[in-house]
Amino acid sequence: MAKGIPARLTRRLLALAVLVAGLIGVLAYFYVTPPPPVIRFPGGKRFAFSIIDDTDMTTLARVRPIYGVLERYGLRTTKTVWVYPTTEPENSTNSGDTLSDPAYRDFIVDLQRKGFEIALHGVRGGSSRREDTLRGLETFKEVLGQYPRMFINHSMNKDNLYWGHNLLAFGPLRWMTGFVNRHEFSGHDPGSPYFWGDVAKQRVTYVRRYTFEDINLLNINPSFPYRLDDKPLVNYWFPTANGDRRVNFEELLTAANVERLVQQGGICLVYAHLGSGSFNQGDEVDPRFEARIRELVKHDGWFAPASEILDYLRQQPGWSGGLGLRERVRVDMRYLVGQLLESVGIGAA
Q: What is the pLDDT of residue 1?
């Protein structure tokens, strides 16, 4: 007669099963998003949508016709700019037209006049010391009549605010990723020559944090915009949805995704590089981009600059500007999982 499993082994297996189940439960608690809030948008609109256009590699020739499409279909979105030319041209993402170019500057001023928001992507493509950043902010104000309300960190700029592993809000995750991400970003460090966080606190309202694949950002981060106690020099953080290149934009704005955004009453702030070349065909706009915009505006959406949408969210009943432990951990986990999938060629973060 075969002997049964020894009692000691049975107890160990049972303990292991309980441990694994408990771990799965804890991960699920942090990873799964509770139902997002129901938001009533202005004019009874069913969802909110904007584009935040990263200025990397933008040229006037490429970007002018794209904004012609946005204007023609009634979208008013957010365009980031640089003030000065790059001092680090070896990085191709640092290239592009700036407010130092008269024709491009006139184009940007005209966009603002038409209702588009102009935001800052650093004062240049490439690192800027404090004196250059402060001078660039003043030039921005001279050209556009106000300081930028929104700032977007750029690539490997040392003057970035809380960039790299410093983005993570959950201490253990930030500590672990610090061993992998060794790049130093110190716009928030008073001891650094690249420090300007004190001025950012005074001048800038919103800073982008993470980019995700979901078209409805409320499904991942329903409390945005929000503050983080460990990152006091940023007033409010917000997430974006991945529309990086034209192919990402198409995948994000499929008919099924847009329908889901409408049905859920969601918010989509698309992060895209509209002027980098992938949204063009020769000197014209890629018709696939225009087709997505044309289909999108058939729905009853609120199409406004990103800061206007974020301002509205801060006026909603129950909004506190805080981010509880559960949401802090979930947002960090979702971001890290996205980064991992991207590193193995699945999706993007």
A: 41
The span from the CA of 315 to the CA of 170, in Å, is 27
CA angle (42 as vertex; 38, 44 as ends), nearest 5: 70
For 61-71, what is each residue's pLDDT tens digit? 999 999 999 99
* Domains along the chain with CATH numbers: 47-343 (3.20.20.370)
Q: Which residues pair with 240 in a beta bridge?
A: 211
pTM, entire model? 0.91
Nearest to 280 by CA among 62, 18, 46: 62
Q: How far apart are CA 272 and CA 257, in angstroms?
A: 17
Rounded to 5 degrees, what are φ and ψ at 50? -150, 170
Looking at the DSSP assignment, which residues form a beta bridge with residue 47?
301
Residue 138 to residue 159: CA distance in whole angstroms: 17
Measured distance CA(47)–CA(85) in Å, rounded: 37
